[in-house]
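Hi R.,

Here's the chain you asked about this morning:
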Amino acid sequence: MASVKWKATLTPRMAEIEPVPKSKRMKNPKLSLVTLVTVVLFISGCATENYKNSVSTAAALNQSSEMIATGNLLIDLSLANLNGLVSHPGSDLRQQFKAFSASVHDLSSTARDTANKAVEMKSRGATYFARWDEESAKMRNEDIRTRSEDRRNEVALRFDRISRQYDATKISFEPFMSDLRDVQRFLATDLTAGGLSAIKDVSEKANRDAVPLKASMAKLSVEFQGLGVAMSPTTK
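And here is the predicted structure, written out as tokens:
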């Protein structure tokens, strides 16, 4: 039996069918919807992003507040150790001196960390207020723009006032810290009854200088914390 060969042929009607151009094909409606949502979210994010700068500034303020409060406690500890060494020396001065040196070291370290955090706070604040200005300038409604500018100025004035208060307190703290270090160096060389007697009046001066300094630091800590809360998006 002979084999049968099949041959495919195109009818005239089939030959007339042309492929649909890509430009005319129906687009995926789901993809279009996703694209639209992405664009909307992107635009919304750009409009509200500056609150993140407020959050970071508030965090730096709160951390600075805690460091300043810790510094106040370390001033008390340093003076207590110094007063005990000078006014109530034990039979072996080395242990008392060791405690005094440790507290002075901790106070110095905390002051350095606070200064670094204050620099960060000021930098973040500058970024926040500059961005606030940019966002206000984009507002088309004059009433809303004015309200934004008024709020910006209110918060910025408070921020600047606290920054200046910190700078003034830092200036007062530096000679106090320097005197404590010098006393530490003095006693590290002359840790004797005679050395304690020679440094006693310096110890008394440090105690007097600490009174207004501690009051200023306590007030500054409260101010930092208050502004930190005011600039935070959380209400509690």
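One quick note: Residues 53-228 form one domain.

Cheers,
M.
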